[in-house]
Design goal:
The chain is mainly alpha-helical. Helices cover 63% and strands 2% of the residues. It has a two-stranded antiparallel ribbon.
Length: 242
Amino acid sequence: MLSTRGVTAKVAAAEPQPARRGGRPSREQAVLLGDRILDVAADLFLTEGYGATSIEAVAQRAAISKRTFYHRFPDKAALFDAVLRRIIQGIRPPPDVPVFEGDDLSEVLHRLARLAVRASIAPITLALTRLMLTEAQRFPELAAIVAREGSRGDAVRQITALLERETCAGRLAIDRPVFAAEQFLALLMTVPQRRALGLGTPMTGAELDLWADDCVNLFLNGCRYWQAGDESSPTPRAYSGL
């Protein structure tokens, strides 16, 4: 099944569900039903495309009525929103992993980099990236949903906070920490993801670790060079939305 638990075989035709006696479903039944709908929707969205996936197809594959569907989701965009949030939750590190904790900026960024570079090439992430590349222009609401729910914005905010902390402590002198955080993530994830998508040879696990470490070292060395106060160095512009 193609879901947030991993991209494997497609969802098979749903088996008939046992008849339920009258009354409201239990909380456990409601959760299982919600999981089944999201599993089916994730598979259809990521394999067939957003445009080709209809509410009727989701309802049929999940063995539910359209009335049951609309009781949970007002439209297809809301369903995609729920699927995306589930995908993001599935690729995020567990809550007990202290990704951004620690006083040593280098140590924090090295830990973050190794996790982020692998998350960027996870099968479910690649499938979502392919979907956005092919469908976002036709369906701009997809881009809006990803921008609102995506994990990249959270990562930028967290990295920005780290850089601001270092600046306040006098260890760095970055006047545009959001710009720097954006550049760090682009440096880290663009090439591994492009290669994983078929634009080159995919990196091995050892190559990914080396890439992550080299990106952190390059980024920190660049920050230190900027801190040196070379007045001939151009000042980056403030970009809209950063």
